[in-house]
Amino acid sequence: MSAPRKLFVKTYGCQMNVYDSERMAEALAGEGYVATDRPDDADLVLLNTCHIREKAGEKLYSDLGRLRPFKAANPGMKIAVAGCVAQAEGAEIIARAPQVDLVVGPQAYHRLPQMAARAQAGERVVDTDFPPEDKFDALPRPTLRRAPAAFLTVQEGCDKFCAFCVVPYTRGSELSRPADRILAEARALVDQGVAELTLLGQNVNAWHGAAGGLAALISALSEIAGLQRIRYTTSHPNDMDAALIAAHGDNPKLMPYLHLPVQSGSDRILRAMNRKHTVADYLALVSRMRAVRPDILLSSDFIVGFPGETAADFDATMALIDTVGYGMAYSFKYSPRPGTPAAHRPTLATAVVDQRLAQMQALITRQQRAAQDAMVGRVVRVLVEKPGRKPGQMGGKSDYLHAVHFQGTPAMTGSVVPVRITESSTNSLAGVIVG
User: In tens digits, what is the pLDDT along the chain, a chain of 435 residues?
Assistant: First the structure.
């Protein structure tokens, strides 16, 4: 019997890429590949890329450079580039990086085993098509051993065409997986010990795989015995319908945390971004969410330095952040993405953008710390996920997605325990089990 071939996977970017990497590894496992955590020891190195930020592409080429000596020492090694950079720059990758043997886009990775076989035979392979078949139909059922929390992609692509975003071009138009297939995959994950599912989509609350939308899917998932918690990300404000809002108040398995990107607090910039909502629309939605679930923790995304942003526009964004009060948020400097409508617009001076980003991140950090400090004295439910850094310590995530550490044993892994919070630190909480 021949020795198994070794697979090293590196994942860049979002949670959907984490999910995609798991599914690609499962597909390749059927061809005899086993995981390794050492790229120099691998027969196939798979880099699953992100194209949202400029530095993600630069990171890919930097990593490809680091892999070159490994391949020189092991000529049989094959290097594959997958994901959104592969979709956007497939031909350029092949031309610029001769050490790459295989390029596969995010809609074609169900073909990866066949592509890998062709690469092993000496062919350089590129597949960045948007095939007519559903890739999820062609993939094997989930088989990898999961942690107590797992991701589950339910929707891909986006039809919003925000001026800064490459997703419609790299992931395609909105596609919703059928409810029965999602439920079957969810049950398989729960059978492997998963207690919490995060439903993923570039525009997840636009899911329309069955009547009733995402709220109906969440309701059906909550009927699965053993599934204790449900989350979803990333949502668009325009697709938060009444049923989904109500679910946050009615469904105890839907966690009190919502990532609701707004990007800017200036109506003028929102129009330039093609966001199709106003600041007033967003604030009204926040009010509706807090009316049904007063303790909900909100997070968001913000782009600083979008072309044309004035000091007044930035001040308006800071005012929105101050008004909403986020439990956490992610802020980024605008980076032009080739092929997007905003790519050729004049950019702001780097020093101005850097100063604004620092000011915004300081405010976000204060709000995040205040939200964590407010947890001290409260009892939260924590999904126990893994041992902590100290002896006898375990860690997990609270209902509100905060990292929490407490004294416990590995036997608790996968259970949800009540923890009274006793301490708030920079990025985590500490507490003691009660009851």
Answer: 467 899 999 998 778 888 889 889 988 998 899 999 999 999 999 999 887 666 667 788 899 999 999 999 998 999 999 988 888 888 889 889 999 999 998 888 888 899 999 999 999 999 887 665 566 766 666 666 668 999 999 998 899 999 999 888 888 889 899 999 999 999 999 999 999 999 999 999 999 999 999 999 999 999 999 999 999 999 999 999 999 999 999 999 999 999 999 999 999 999 999 999 999 999 999 999 999 999 999 999 999 999 999 999 999 999 999 999 999 999 999 999 888 999 999 999 999 999 999 999 999 999 999 999 999 999 999 999 999 888 999 999 999 999 999 999 999 999 999 999 999 998 899 999 997
Q: Name residue 394's beta-bridge partners.
A: 387, 406
Give the number of C-alpha atoms closer than 13 A to the C-alpha of residue 202, restricted to the C-beta side: 25
DSSP state of 376: T
Same domain, 44 and 62: yes
Count up the domains in the chain and report the number.
3
pTM: 0.85
Same domain, 65 and 93: yes
Mark whether 194 and 175 lie in a shared domain: yes
Q: Which residues contact residue 359 at a Cβ distance below 8 angstroms, ignoring those fewer than 6 apart?
A: 318
Same domain, 27 and 99: yes
Helix, coil or strand: residue 124: coil
State the residue range of the domain holding 211: 139-373
